[in-house]
Structures are given as C-alpha cells and as structure tokens.
Amino acid sequence: MSFIPVFSFDNYIDANLRMGQLQEEGINCWLKDEHTVVIDPILTNAIGGIKLMVHETQKERAMDLLRIMRNREKENHACPHCGSFNVEYIITNRKASNWLMAIVTFLLGSYAVATEKRYHCFDCGEEFEEKDRNTDGTDLTDEGR
Ligand SMILES: [Zn+2]
Fold first, then answer.
1. What is d(CA 29, CA 19) in angstroms, rounded to the nearest whole number?
2. Tens-place pLDDT, residues 39-96
3. Could you tell me the pTM of the whole model?
4. How remote is the CA of residue 73 from the centroid of ligand 1, in Å?
5. Residues 6+ apart with CB under 8 A from 54
6. Neighbours of ion ligand 1 (CB under 5 A)
7. CB atoms within 10 A of CB 3
8. Is 109 exposed, middle or buried (0-12, 13-18, 19+ CB in 10 A)?
9. With 87 labelled, which of 44, 77, 127, 133 sits at a CA distance of 20 to 30 A?
C-alpha cells in the first residue's frame, strides 16, 4: 500500500473537512503532519502544511473530487455587495504585527506569514471575507455539468 500527497492544507479544520468528504466518496485517505500543525502553526508553514495522503490507485479520483468541491464552494460565494458570482478567492498577507513576526517573516520568507482568506468581486470591486462553509452533505455524484 503506498500513499501519495495530493493536497496540502494550512489549517486543521479544512484538512479534516476535506478528508471526511473524500472518505464519504470512498477514497482511502488520511492526514500527514496533522499533529505538528496543531501544536505549532509556524512550523506548519515550514513543513508545507497538513498533507492529504491518498492511496495511489485513487489519486485521479481524489483530484477530481477536490476540484469539484472547490468549484462547488466557489459557486456558494456570491458577492454580498452586488450578488455577482464573478468572484475570485484571494489570499492577502497580514502585515507583520510585531517584531517577532517580522523576524519570522525575514527568516522563513513571506509564505510563513499568516494569511487572510478573502474574495474579490470583479463586477463591483468589493472584497469580502469568506462566509460560513457550506457543510451540508451535498453529494458529488452529478459531476456531468
Ligand atoms: Zn460585487
């Protein structure tokens, strides 16, 4: 049995949510470095986040499912300002809030800085925070759209 990483997460919640969704679809998967991440968020960035490990025979299926899930989530995000779905997920680096953060940033590079998840609307230019996740168990079988 060999497992390969197909995706990496920077937070525990996302990682477990995705793993659960994939397992519901019959994917044999688990999370690597999960505990390291919980203990030390800074180290998380250094080691590349929580890795979603999938059995190699299910890699293609898992990648498809992840892509579908991401598209679904995008559709769930309408601009609160104008209602447009023409939005894009962006990540903005938080400004270094203190000297320690500044040093960590300097040592590890900007990828280690905590990020904010935001969406940008192309129609009205509004930026907004991520809304509550849609976790109701919508099935992913009607892929053919
Ligand atoms: Zn808008």
1. 7
2. 666 666 666 788 999 999 999 999 999 988 887 776 777 888 888 878 877 765 555 5
3. 0.52
4. 17
5. 3, 4, 5, 6, 22, 27, 28, 29, 62
6. 79, 81-82, 84, 121, 123-124, 126
7. 17
8. exposed
9. 44
